[in-house]
Design goal:
Blueprint lengths: L23 H24 L2 H6 L7 E2 L5 E5 L4 H6 L6 H12 L7 E5 L13 H4 L1 H9 L3 E5 L1 H10 L14 E5 L2 E6 L9 H11 L1 H7 L5
Helix pairs in contact: 1-6
């Protein structure tokens, strides 16, 4: 019969089936995957740094959750961090873990990095392009607060001129607005606060403000 449909063929859909909307968990997973890819790409770029190649030592990379709420930042690495190639490895990391435990902060919501990723002694030899990589890390992680440790790190941060950012003042233990989505807490340099009792107390007085900030976060 002309124009007739085969009896055995399935009926044709009049409209294409619409895709199911993504759930909140799926959206978060996509953002996390994107952040991981971007940090991996950044790490590969850093490992090709010519300044680091001259020292025959690998650059010191950031570590932690790719979408952390808390972003730790200091200026220069210690010997243990250079040896392992990981920021906040060794004594500074151990001290911070104890501090997080005392403040009831989950350390898995933290990302830590340093400005001077090239492990060279002379400041003139440091690749200033590497110093600006902190901007890339900040944009990838998108933290809710940045803990800036020490005057050198503070000076370098203010020099970055991150879009929509405000100048951070050297006021220890005070939460300051940095961008519309991120605050800043300025503390003394942690590496200088590991041995001397007065320096330890000064660092702790400033750092414990992070606990009060964390307690004020909404649980959703």
């Amino acid at each position: 019969m002309q124009g007739g449909a085969d009896k055995g063929s399935p009926p044709k859909a009049s409209k294409k089936a619409s895709a199911m909307p993504a759930t909140d968990n799926e959206i978060r997973e996509k953002y996390l995957e994107k952040a991981i890819r971007e940090l991996n790409h950044l790490s590969r770029d850093l490992q090709s740094c010519e300044a680091c190649s001259r020292t025959k030592v690998m650059p010191v990379l950031g570590s932690g959750h790719p979408q952390a709420d808390i972003f730790l930042l200091k200026y220069a690495p210690t010997v243990s961090e250079i040896e392992e190639g990981v920021a906040f490895y060794g004594r500074p990391g151990n001290a911070l873990m104890k501090s997080f435990k005392r403040l009831n902060i989950d350390p898995t919501v933290v990302y830590g990095t340093i400005f001077s990723k090239c492990p060279v002694d002379a400041g003139s030899e440091r690749d200033h392009g590497c110093l600006s990589r902190v901007t890339d890390e900040f944009n990838i992680v998108q933290p809710k607060i940045m803990v800036v440790m020490g005057e050198d790190a503070l000076t370098a941060l203010n020099a970055l001129e991150i879009p929509l950012s405000r100048t951070v003042e050297p006021r220890e233990g005070e939460i300051q607005a940095f961008t519309p989505a991120c605050d800043v807490l300025f503390t003394p340099e942690i590496d200088e606060a590991l041995d001397e009792e007065g320096a330890k107390r000064r660092f702790w007085r400033a750092f414990r403000t992070l606990g009060r900030w964390h307690d004020d976060l909404p649980p959703y």
